[in-house]
Batch of 2 targets.
Target 1
Amino acid sequence: MERISTHQFIKLAAALVLGQSFLSAGSLSTMIAGRDGWIATFLGFLAGIPFILLALSISFRYPGKNFLQITEQVLGKWLGKIIGVIYILLTIRFGTLIVSQGVDMYTRTVLPIMSHYVIVLGILLIIIYLFYSGIEVLGRFSEVIYPIIFLSLIFIAIFIFPHFEHGELFPILADGLVPIIKVSVQVLTWPLGYILFLAGLLPFIPREKKEQKKMYKGVIRAVIIVSILSTLLVVVQISTFGPFEAARLTYGLLVLSNMVEVLNAISGVEVIFTLIWMGSIVLKSTALIFAGYWGIQTIFGIKGKIASIFLCLLYILIPIWLFRGSALVVSIWEMNQFIITPFVIVWLLILWGGDKWKRRKKAA
Amino acid sequence: MEKKKKSSLKLSLWLIILLLIPVFLGGCGGKKEVEELAFIIGIGVDVGSEEGSYLVTMQMAKPPVGSESGGGEVENFTVSVEVERLSLLTEKVIEAFNKTPFTGTVRVIILGEELAQQGINEVLDYFQRFYQYRRTIFMLLAKGNAKDIMENKLRSSELPSLSMIDILEGQMEFNTIPVTRLGHYLTILGRVSQCPLIPIVEVIKPGQKEIEYSAEKGYEQLIGDSGIFHEGKLVDTLNDIETKGYLWLNDEVSGRYILIESDKFRVVARVTSSKTKYKVKEMEEGMGITFRIKTQAFLSEVVEKGEGKGIKGIKEWEDFVKEVEILLREAIQKECEEAVEKSKDIEMDFIGIGRKIEMKNPKYWKEIKDTWPEELVDFPVEYDIHIDINQTGLSRSGPGSFNK
Amino acid sequence: MKNPWLKMFKELTIRSHVKKVRKSPELPIDQEWDKPISFFEIKKELEKSTDIVFRRFKVRGKEDVPCALGVVDGLIDKHLLDAFVLRILMVEGVADPIFREINRKNIVDMLLDVFTPANEIKKINTMGEAVDAILSGDAVLFVEEGKEALVISARGWETRGIATPENEAAIRGPKEAFNESLRTNTSLLRRKIKHPSLRIIAMKIGELTRTDLVIVYVEKLASQDVVKEVQDRLERVKIGGLVAGDVLEEFIEDFPYSPFPQVNVTERPDIVASDLLEGRVVVLVDGTPTALVVPATLNKFMQVNEDYYERAMIVILVRFIRYLGAVIAVLAPSLYIAITNFHQELLPTNLALSIAASREATPFPALIEAFLMLTVLEILQEAGLRLPKPIGQTIGIVGALVIGDAAVKASLVSPIQVIVIGITAVSSYAIPSYDLAIAIRLLRLPLMIMAGTMGFFGLGIGMYFVLIHLLKLRSFGTPYLSPIAPFKVRAFLQDTFVRAPWWALKKRPQLIDIEDPNSKGRK
């Protein structure tokens, strides 16, 4: 059985919570919260911590089992199967949407006339290769890619500094707390999306007591770092564009990277950033393929090979057939808000309640 | 173990085949060799001859044919095309020229005066939508037609656009004109209360604007003053002093030369750094704004006149410098006042006072928001200027002053 | 298996060589291998080669015992045998009263215990052992009608002296290199590590060549799993002739179809010794002046021994340059193609103009141009590699004149392209390991094609592909990109891109699995 180390687990968590969210976070958070979008982003990510910890703590009570198996054990076979099917469909749709977002990122900017299926196949090539290389390699991939993504984002923040507009962040909290809370709830979906992957990953993480403590701490630290990073990026976008412009741009960060000029000589480096960010898209959608793969194996008991081929085909075909760049950001947003957030929260709470109730019954 | 290895190998075979499919079927989209491109440096937009059309001037740099070194010199290659919308530009040009215009190198947009009066926001949509145009592109307002300015033959035979870019980038040390980039313009546009400024570029004949030169080889161009835009339309222009006042108030000054004159002396002070802060607070006439400018400067020229000529002692110099400081303060304040005066005159908030109120006192801003530009007329503005003259150059008094 | 492709790839699996053993010619003696010694049969078989000599003589003890000394001429030290075997047995010993007690029955033991003053001697009793001993250069003392024989070690053949390393030049550090003699090589290691924990295990590989080899490791430092795995893999090697130890590399590596080297090959004993002390396992083969070191990780190929002899501050710079060189060597041509064909906005305007000007008159697209230049470069490299030194300079002149100058003057290629390819070539020489440099040369071409068809996107796909491949690779259980991924803090900070000063290297690196990582003192 393959295993990932605690360090890889934490890096994976950080990379997946960050995911591709940084691409559209600026636009989506300033749309409602305006100048205070960054506060909302910060709070939204932090709010994900308790959910992730809850998921981990449930799983530690059932070592070696993934969430679907735990669900079947706690809530009974049929409810477990129903949740499992929803889970599989969700991961497939979400994963393919993320692939489409990668394609969208390219076609909107550096490769406007490249046919989109070429980009889909190109990205999928990497994703499938990574998927077939196994979960260990995914862990190592995140160890390599996450620091690079992190540095690329910091690099943008530093080099965009000369283009900051004066005092765009102020006044703080002019419109009160309501829009901030609204946006925070929306931002919460990114850490919750990570739980989708975590649900399947659980059998592969270390089981020792000592490591569990490390994992709790590591995940908290990872999410905090990611929330600080995302907040920084939203701050940078608001300070550069102003809230109105930031809300208007589809991928604010791409425009930012477009503006980076190093010593007046090197400009137009957005293509390099798109390459780096492709890594995060690959990482996230591969993670979701894994999630779907484990889901199919658990729920239907299909052999690994068939399930994987089936999944890979879906991942290739859905982005090619259903690609619509103009509506993409909206559909991802709707998917996040109206499906993933409620699904994960309800699932976690039911599981937690069921587990508690069962324990009490046992004790009695 | 062995079995697993086999399957992974087979997989890599399939992957490679899968990889080759996109490469050979769909690749090459957007491929263009670098020598097939004409690099556009600047784009000028004027009103076209027909209703709703534009006369677009593209200034392209062309490498001189047959040069082996390829270095430095470029040939000017400027074309004007009349199109209904700006995006149609490339299509039109490609019919007539053997090279594809490449917009990734555009650094400056020049807007014709007539177009500016009709409104420029529609034009800008194209520039902010296509990824190759950066938000760091400079914007300039042409005095007259943009086409004339771009077709002007400079004495240095440099491309006018390149020369404009150099002028704007040279602003780092001395700030006499506001530098407006596309992104900055769009951001200001987002603040409803503020009117963006765009600096004006014009061709000057010998003798104009106090500049003399020989016009044998061509004419010089000059960037100065600025136009005020309201809802995308040019409504008024600021003269030199008002523009400088705007720069002081918006903390965009880091270097300047300022002439100070009194009945005793004539001094030029060079500002080396300056910082502007502001405060919105209750004043005698109600809520008002205070600009607090902290400036460091040194004396670059001292000419004494009248009686009491020849200041000798070091102690005397200290008094003299203090006197200069007071006068310098007045000079700066005058520039600022001119700008505010203009702003009140035309009821346009190009200084961004409204935005400054919003930052410092959002509650009060909400009250006056709806009546803002009109409210400006009797909005009290105060100045609190600190000058620090930290050195007077290598010598103290002027040459020959000891003789007397 | 109907699909011929699949069939082919099935055959190309990792251990297919285990199944297919090349048949060696069978001699009559091969069937007698395990039987008791019969001198006459051995003589009959071996006498056919003229270099094998049998000196027959009689030991005149209680009775005359006919004996024979079998040696390979040229492999033994004749002087030694004459002085300490023949002279004693035939002349000097006869005077000894004990010598008179020798008879047919006790002769072997008597000779072993008393009358053969050689320091390495042992009793054998099978045909195979005897033949092996003779052919390996030992002298075998037969009792003609007996069933036992004595192997006397009197090896003495011509060897090259210990020379300075030719391919791994260094300014500081020891200047000795391995040579073709296995014993010399092990002695070089033993002289560096004088501790009982240095283990040297002997093996023989090759049906015909019967080549000696040793596995060297330090007990308690090297992981037992790795040692066992090396032993297992070597035992599985079935090969007729092992002429050079380098052949083994292909047999024991984990991923034979990866361009990346997975076994470290070096000719310097100091490198091997420090590798041993890091817990690696070394294979030395007789007749080969290089050592194979496993497990190998990617960053090991980017390090040289001098990194540890120079001061740490200098090493930081030097390593940075080396990694930079590697990156440029992989990417420079494809970056140039991608930028000039797809993403011209990356170029500063002046540079774009001068590239455009220089390319104006050239006939080929950038991809073909780069392809041509690289081909010529590769040919030049290959041609220069094997030329005698005096002619080697010609290649340089031809290369510089024809490729550099004339091609540009004739407008065949653009000067920028020449610069790009030149930088690529120079950078690839900054990679210390020749094996890795070749791997990088292999990667360059596909990356160029990807960049030429899909620009940066294609280049990115290619790079990610290589990255995932590297992440997947393992060398004897150690992930190839260790300590970057899986991330090992100490190893990463102390000895990967930078090297911490020696006094800070208190613990052993975590590059590979070792038994006792906390033992103090790194080397």
Target 2
Amino acid sequence: MVLIVNTTSDHSITDELKNSLQDKGVDADIIETDSMRISHCIGCNFCWLKTPGECSIKDDYEIIIKKMIHADQMWVISDTALGFLDHKGKNIYDRILPIATMYLKFVGDQMRHVPRYKMNTEMGLIYTGEPEVEYLKKWNARMALNFESKSLGVFGRDELKEAVSCMCL
Amino acid sequence: MHVFIINGSPRIKSQSNTDKILEQFTKGMSENGTSFEQYEVSDRKQWDDMRKAFAENKNILIALPLYVECIPGLLIEFLETVEPKTDDSRIAFILQGGFAEGIQLRCGEEYLKILAGKLGCAYAGTLVKGNNFSIRFVEGAERDKITVPYGEMGREYAAKGDFSSEKCKKFTGPEVFPAPIRLLVGILFKTAAKTGLNKIAEGWGCTRPLDYKPYS
């Protein structure tokens, strides 16, 4: 299943994706977050040390994380600000921490958190606006690596066809 | 010199490792007459004052924890609301994180250079250091061992107005650990560190194993 989390208020992007994915016969689950309550991460570490795997903030993010761990791919659609994701987009990633445990290990020459689940959710990003694209690509790859995942790439609003070509199982 | 400081940690001040780092950093920084005002991004009631201070000050310092390879969402939310500067302001950063190797913070550091430009400020460097996860869990000499060295970096910043000195660069420590150290630390992760974490969790009232899977 391909999970698509749209943090923008522009539903035309997801409408286009829905049509293209239907044509391709790809099983997609689309979440529009503009009508959801999703807080920023407050860094309490409860998801690691008090209620393992569960966020202390009881809002709508739990819907996303429950689907994410079973998804083959997760795509976030985000507006951009200051050359990067805007806060709504970044909050989706900051709140992902419950999928990791507090335990650590080395992978190659770097420390990593031991994953909580055996999941292989690959990560793609679709942006609007004018971010620093090269940086965003590097960030997405690094973020995916740290969750023992793989980057599916970073695509602008006008590159939806290219993004869809990566959305197959 | 007068410095406008933002603690960019979303964690409340009393629990913020970044705040404890700033405590020592500002102690060193103010020894020779440098003054400062500090605000907390975690407290939205301060945001109006922070916007005003951002506009009025030319020496700006943001201290922040690395959140998923970049800056925390809450700090982005605040910075989205400030007017980029059009004067000759300078901005420096203290970037800290939990993982011990310098390489873990470089992706975040790279963004901070971009951010300085987006905020209309000259980039005055980033003080980069990891291995800070335990600050709030320890006290006294144990905490001092981690945070007091930031005092020396505060003195460097006060003297130069940036983090360009060799001392500041060396402060990061190793980019990656050599293989024998990794082997040793890897064993510690599976033994003593695990026990230590389980103890902290127990103290917090945790009743489940730390690798519990609520959504399986």
